[in-house]
Amino acid sequence: MSNVDLSKVVNWPQSLSKLTLLTELKLSECNLPDVNLRSLSFINSSTSLQLLDLSVNHLNSSIFYWIANVSSNFVHIHLSYNNLKGPIPDVFTSMLSLVTLYLSSNQLEGGIPKGFQNLCSLELLTLYRNQLSENIEDSVKTLSCAENTLETLDWGFNQFWGSLPDFTRFSKLSVLYLDSNQVNGSVPENVGQLSSLETLFLSENSLSGVITEAHFLNLSRLQYLSLSGNRFSINLSSDWKPPFQLTDGLDMSSLKSPYLRSVDISKNLLSGELPNCWMQFQELRELNLGKNKLSGKIPSSLGNLQGIQVLRLHDNNFSGELPSLENRTSLLMVDLGNNNLSGKIPTWICQTLPNLAILRLRSNEFNGIIPFSLCTLAAILVLDLSHNNISGGLPHYFSNITALADDFGYDDVIVELVWKGIEIEFGENLAGMRSIDISSNYLIGEIPPSIASMTELISLNLSRNKLTGKLPEDFGNMKMLESLDLSRNRISGKIPTSFASLNFLSVLDLSHNNLSGRIPSGTQLQGFNASQYMGNLGLCGPPLTQSCPGEGTVQDDGIARGTKIDNKEQIPGQCKRLDLCQNQGKSAEDTSKINGDSGIRGNEPNYPRSGKIQGLMLKVFRYHLKSPKYETTQDPGISSGNGNEKTDGIRNLGFYYGSALLGFFRGVWESLTLYYYSLHKMIFKVAAYCYVEEGISSVLQSNQDMREYSNFAF
């Protein structure tokens, strides 16, 4: 009845007690309610129930007492993934037939109950992922009655402490998980006598000492080995033979099938050179020797591992060229980063490894060009060639990479990647990653336009190279990009407007290039710090403080600030606004008609939104008002006292607007002409029709400042 919602069932233990002939009960993932301890006295003990599976519910520790009351003939009990808390109750004392007990993934504390001394038939005990804390030697002694039966002991991810006990008493032990505890001291050599051992996980403890051949002397059946996260060193003789296949008195050639499938001895103090004996392990799937102090050349016999899927030798001191891994079609991951490897990137990586998903060669001394055939890596998720001496250009068909990539299907792999400028570990979240990092090399040439076709790419880092040319116009097609670093190159031209479409971008660095023009407006681009654009002298616009040509900061008076013209002194007595000059001397009623004011605000003019235009026109007028000929000229529309007030006003307007027309064709008007023209076209028409020709000629002849004006670009 597993996976059936029984959350509404009342007193289910009492109902089950009536099934006196029941031998097996499986109620996994049923949302069972907790047991009411008061009802236990009404439950009759059943002598028939042998198998009980109540895993993946939300049961609390009261279930232990129901189990003790319902039967003493249990053979299999499965209570993993519940809400069991506190010490394990000593309720198993009379369960002499118990063979398997699963209590993993709960919140149990304390140690192993003394009643476990009676479990002489126990074959499997799983306490994985709890909070158990006890001297591990005392805990193992509690299982002494199961010396001849115990096969699987999983105490991983707890807080057991002390030195490793002697496990040789458990003659049938095949699986031993003690990873992620607080065990210290050295590994006793007699662990090599566990001839039935297939899986040994001692990783992430505080173990130290020297590992020798004796530790693996009779481990001929060993398939999975994990010793990472300790402080081991290894001392192996130069003629050392693979220990995982040795049995007393047997020659290596007499073994018909090797068993070793996984070796993880990463994060230790292993030093020296690796022996060249790996051709013996044809069943090896994963080899992780990363983060040690191994040196010398990588053994060529690693290329004979037909079934290898994960090869990790990162963070060591290996040197020389890569051995050939050609036609190892099962390879999913090659991590050789942070070594001293040299030579060219071999073409066989691209041509004969069709399933390669992660290629990490960063921080080595590889040179030469990127093989053109690299583009055939259709399954690639992570490509990291950064911090090498690679030269040449980017392949023009880079877009093929990640085009067909599927999610990485290796759940237990953890990879260190530089993500958004920080090196972090990716484990389960590696599945959705799409990353290319070729930074800190000597790449030249342009970024190929086809790179924009990598629409699934999440992270791209081409910084610290010598790339030139312009950015591809379709860069914005990579809409999944979250991190983009193109800094410290020689890229020129404008930032394509398509950049504004990169809505997921959270890290951007375009600094120290030769980019110019306005930074495109977009929800992301203006939100970055100005330092992400620094070192591009031609760039302007937000978030930079540098304004683009023809722009200024507009203040309340409608005059654009921050340009050359507005630094000139104003002529005392001159109008500050064109509309005020036009309305000067007129009544409030006339003024309201001109400005479209309803008259509610009295004599205050109703300024239209063309304040910028008016301010710009005023700057042009200031140049000509400083001319000697016009120093005493009154504002447009004001009587000169000669009896020809109307003529004088219109004539002066002709002069001023004639000068303004020159500015009109000088670039400022390029972006503002339509808006201004719609507001003032009637004034322009009258002025241009009557006196523009005379005004222009007079100004050109007499105004010496016009030379400066005509050479000035807003």
Describe the protein:
The protein is an alpha/beta fold. Among the domains are: 270-548, Leucine-rich repeat, LRR (right-handed beta-alpha superhelix) (Alpha-Beta Horseshoe), CATH 3.80.10.10; 557-710, no CATH class. 16% of the residues lie in helices and 20% in strands. It has a 19-stranded parallel β-sheet, with no helix packed on it. A hairpin with a 5-residue loop joins strand 40 and strand 41 (560-561). Helix 7 (611-625) crosses helix 8 and helix 8 (645-664) packs across helix 9.
Describe the secondary-structure layout.
Layout: H1 12-16, E1 24-26, E2 51-53, H2 62-70, E3 76-78, E4 85-87, E5 100-102, E6 107-110, E7 124-126, E8 131-132, H3 136-141, E9 152-154, E10 161-163, E11 175-177, E12 182-186, E13 199-201, E14 206-211, E15 224-226, E16 231-234, E17 262-264, E18 271-273, E19 286-288, E20 293-297, E21 310-312, E22 317-320, E23 333-335, E24 340-344, H4 348-351, E25 358-360, E26 365-369, E27 382-384, E28 389-392, E29 415-419, E30 422-426, E31 435-437, E32 442-445, E33 459-461, E34 466-467, E35 483-485, E36 492-494, E37 507-509, E38 514-518, E39 538-540, E40 553-554, E41 560-561, H5 578-583, H6 588-595, H7 611-625, H8 645-664, H9 668-702, H10 706-710
Parallel strand pairs: 1-2, 2-3, 3-5, 4-6, 5-7, 6-8, 7-9, 9-11, 10-12, 11-13, 12-14, 13-15, 14-16, 15-17, 17-19, 18-20, 19-21, 20-22, 21-23, 22-24, 23-25, 24-26, 25-27, 26-28, 27-31, 28-32, 31-33, 32-34, 33-35, 35-37, 36-38, 38-39
Antiparallel strand pairs: 29-30, 40-41
